[in-house]
Amino acid sequence: MLDLIINIVLIVVPIMLGYFFGRRIERKHYDSIREREAAFASLPTTVLKHPIESHNITQATLVSGSAVISIDYFKRFLAGLRNIFGGNVTAYESLIDRARREAILRMKESAQGADEIINVRIETSSISKNSAKGNIGSVEALAYGTALRY
Amino acid sequence: MHLSNIETIPGKTIVAHYGIVSGSTVRAKHAGRDIMAGFKNIFGGELKAYTELLSESREEALSRMQEQAHSLGANAIVNVRFSTSSVAAGAAELYVYGTAVSVE
After folding, report:
1. pLDDT tens digits for A65-81?
2. Which one of A26, A49, A127 has the shortest CB-CB distance to B44?
3. Strands (E), A2-150
4. Quick one: average pLDDT of A48-56?
5. Which residues from A are below 8 Å from B11, CB to CB?
6. Is the pLDDT higher at B104 or at A125?
7. DSSP symbols for A90-121
8. Least buried of A1, A34, A48, B14, by fewest C-beta within 10 Å?
9. Which string of DSSP letters, residue by residue, matches B19-51?
10. Which residues of B touch A102 (CB under 8 A)?
11. B10, A57: Cβ pair inside 8 Å?
12. Residue A132 pLDDT > 50, yes or no?
């Protein structure tokens, strides 16, 4: 009986912690992302091969940024449930969205003094998948592009 | 060394091509980092140790590629691409490649 209670506590407590802390961390992260995105609104960033308007370009450099974001226990639990019924796993969507936007922001931050960033590419990977036991659920995003100075 | 992920280095002209150059690094899970990452997995949020690892391996792959281009006598690399692949359980490769050229 005691074993059963301990087992239930071991399952429920991380889910509760994940729910409370995970939500708070995510909300804080989104606030910070929105704030910094607004600050960088004046820096044109495109997936085009050429600048939006033709300029006399004096400098071009490769810039990149990366972020690794971990999932919380509650979302993992939700995703586990989704695996039974199928459908969109919205819990994971926000995770990937955060990682990619953070990577793009870091790329912009590393492009100090640039007038435009063109040909932006985003790459995602994981060193955690495929490991059968004790795997860490996380998303790695890497954004890169060419920063131009007029 | 000029680097760009578009076909040219803006403001310069390409005078010679040297073919494909590449650099890669394989990074793996780290037992010490994994303990912290395990805790983070309950609360969510950024895994700073792994972000660091990712940017280190990115820099390393880039510098290997630049070394190769340098040894060919190139002074720029255009059309740079990053690519990732899963090598084995708990390990991932970061691969960067591009075309080595001479610009003036």
Report:
1. 989 888 888 887 887 78
2. A26
3. 59-72, 116-125, 138-149
4. 81
5. 56-60
6. B104
7. HHHHHHHHHHHHHHHHHHHHHSTT-SEEEEEE
8. A1
9. EEEEEEEEEE--HHHHHHHHHHHHHEEE-HHHH
10. 46
11. yes
12. no
Residues in chain B closer than 8 A to A52 (CB atoms): none
In total, the C-beta contacts within 8 angstroms joining chain A to chain B are: 142
Q: Has residue A131 got a pLDDT over 70?
A: no
B80 close contact with A: CB closer than 8 A? yes
Average pLDDT, chain A: 83
Q: Residue A130: its pLDDT value, please?
A: 46
Residue A127: what pLDDT? 62
Pairwise CB contact (< 8 Å): A64 & B86 = no
Q: What is the pTM of this model?
A: 0.84
Contact: B92, A125; criterion CB under 8 Å: yes
Across the interface, which of B29, B44, B55 has its CB nearest the CB of A21? B44
CATH number of B2-103: 3.30.110.70
Q: Do A137 and B41 touch (CB under 8 A)?
A: yes
**Residue B62 and residue B24: Cα distance in Å, rounded?**
8
Q: Is B40 on the interface with A (CB under 8 A)?
A: yes
User: pLDDT (tens digit, 9 = 90+) per residue, B21-49?
Assistant: 999 888 877 766 667 777 777 778 888 88
How many helices (H) and strands (E) chain A has is answered by: 3, 3
Domain spanning A2-149: CATH superfamily = Hypothetical protein apc22750. Chain B (3.30.110.70)
Q: What tokens appear for A4 in the block?
A: 């059963």
Mean per-residue pLDDT, A128-141: 63
Domain boundaries, chain A: 2-149
Q: Is the ipTM of this complex over 0.90?
A: no
Q: B27: distance to nearest CA of chain A, Å?
A: 8
**Tokens matching residue B55:** 């940017």
